[in-house]
Amino acid sequence: MNHSQGKVSLPVIKRLPKYYRYISQMQQNGVVKVSSSELARMMGTTASQVRQDFNCFGGFGQQGIGYNVDVLLHEIGRLLFGEGEKLPTILVGAGRLGRAVSRFLTTDTNGYHLLAVFDVQQELVGQDLDGIPIHHIDELESFCAAHKPQVAVLCLPREGAKEISGRLVDLGIRGFWNFSHYDLSIPYPNVTVENAHLGDSLMSLGYRLRND
Amino acid sequence: MNHSQGKVSLPVIKRLPKYYRYISQMQQNGVVKVSSSELARMMGTTASQVRQDFNCFGGFGQQGIGYNVDVLLHEIGRLLFGEGEKLPTILVGAGRLGRAVSRFLTTDTNGYHLLAVFDVQQELVGQDLDGIPIHHIDELESFCAAHKPQVAVLCLPREGAKEISGRLVDLGIRGFWNFSHYDLSIPYPNVTVENAHLGDSLMSLGYRLRND
């Protein structure tokens, strides 16, 4: 493919999973070809945006005759999941939120492999989360040296995240799924951070309901 | 304030909670005045964007001499939380994710009042989630008629969300915090939907780690 992935903007990247989900459904429903306007209708956008988005990745085939669903799914899947190799991942924080989001890491479909869970609470150590062992946070250094995780999921409060994130970066973590309010990307501009700020999401819904 | 809130774009709205959090911290730290460039540095943006964002809401005071922290916090708080009245809310789905996100609804700080939780599983009925009772989903109609919730949080799979969302709209729900992959805003264009698609968030992190 003759695209330059380095230049793809974040909003386009953030739409890829949605394309992937919709096109998976079409494939399951036996659809073989799809036009940009059909995709646009499903996505709640315009055909021109769909074509523009796809052009960031080389276009995915001849748009005049419609896109081939199998090819689209394969190509978008390859962008999202590489050649199938999973990203070795640790979860920090085994509270309610950590327990809930671990599901997204342990399913086969998202491209991650959850190696271990860490928590500060001694009473959780030795327990497991769907079969993944919970370690004490003090074991972080030895575990990372041995198992080389690349991604850390932060399900802990702001102060805990502030304290731990430098250690994680030093230990080779290059991607964060960050549920805390600590803004990692400012002190560590070279790591990739995906923020999942649920409180912010809820507050902005409140704004829209109160002011629309 | 002489602003026209109807025209504020979604990206600006989505930044409001972050401003609110940062400015709260400044207030706690005893900061009295703040310039747009100081705010920009904390937010990881530019001073010009900060001023542009604030101008959507009337500007929040004289930027030449810096913004007054108390005024900023009060005004942004009023936009996010109104005059303090909480939005009556129900949660549909008492699984792991529902249990985790209920915390965001039961804290005092986000502007919601969680009235009840609903689930299809008979064995959960009569239990509670941090003191909020779990009802069977069949009680939805009678509960909503009596208590008039305005917001529904959907922590259930796509098919369940597809099935229930029309009922909820008919029952007067006008805002959704949607964790399911069902795309509510297409069948119900008049409701306000805030999607929290955690799987998509994780996949787009994967893209960035694999292709950057």
Number of helices of chain A: 8
Number of domains of chain A: 2
Q: What is the N-to-C succession of helices and strands of chain A?
A: HEHHEHEHEEEHEHEEH
Instruction: Estimate the mean pLDDT confidence of chain A.
Output: 92
Distance between the termini of chain A: 44 Å
Structural class of chain A: alpha/beta
Oligomer: homodimer
What is the annotated CATH architecture of the largest domain in chain A? 3-Layer(aba) Sandwich
Protein chain pair with the most extensive contact, residues per chain: A-B, 57 and 57 residues
Question: Order of strands across the widest beta sheet of chain A?
Answer: 5-6-4-3-7-8-9
Helix fraction bin of chain A? 40-55%
How much of the sequence lies in strands of chain A comes to 15-25%
Shape of chain A: globular
Which fold name is given in CATH as the topology of the largest domain in chain A? Answer: Rossmann fold
CATH superfamily grouping of the largest domain in chain A: NAD(P)-binding Rossmann-like Domain
- Return the CATH class of the largest domain in chain A: Alpha Beta
Q: Describe the biggest sheet of chain A? A: 7 strands, mixed
Q: From the alpha carbons, calculate the radius of gyration of chain A and give it in angstroms.
A: 20 Å
Secondary structure: number of strands of chain A? 9
Low-confidence stretches of chain A: 1-5
